[in-house]
Amino acid sequence: MTRTQLAAGFALAVGLTVLPFAAVMGGALSRESLLALIAGSGLFQVVVHLRLFLDLRSGGRGTARVLATVFGVLLMAIMLVGTLWVMRDLHLRMML
After folding, report:
1. 80 in Cβ contact with 43 (< 8 Å)
2. Torsional class of 8: left (φ above 0), alpha (ψ -120 to 50), beta (otherwise)
3. Residue 52 burial (CB count, 10 A)
4. Nearest to 12 by CA among 49, 43, 38
5. Confidence at residue 9, expressed as pLDDT on a 0 to 100 scale
6. pLDDT in tens, 77-88
7. What counts of helices (H) and strands (E) characterise the chain?
8. pLDDT tens for the 96 residues of the chain, in order
9. First-last CA distance in the chain
10. Cα–Cα distance list, 33 to 40, 45, 74 (Å)
């Protein structure tokens, strides 16, 4: 992994983080468009992290690649379920 690849990954990660924030703050898009942009940026950022930071490319090290992918999916599921749980709990507490 070269510094150029790491710099490109960092630039993509920052850009994919700033893009949804700028779109929300700008307010020019509809709600559905914003949700699609946020979801698309998030999915693309996962791919960027897997390919450029975790070095998961095609070829070789099949078991390690599968385990890393399963681990990444598991972490994403835990974060998603945890976020939904916390938001639901906050919603229920605010309604009381």
Report:
1. no
2. alpha
3. 19
4. 49
5. 87
6. 899 899 999 999
7. 3, 0
8. 788 888 988 999 999 999 999 999 998 889 899 999 998 998 899 888 878 877 666 666 677 777 877 888 898 889 989 999 999 999 999 987
9. 53
10. 10, 18, 27
To which residue do tokens 């938001």 refer?
A: 87
- Please name the residue that has the structure tokens 């893009």: 19
- The structure tokens 């700028």 sit at 22
Residue where the block lists tokens 């983080």: 17
Tokens of 12: 């993509």
Per the CB < 8 A criterion, the answer to whether 25 and 38 are in contact is no
| The two three-digit tokens of residue 11, written as one number | 């630039």
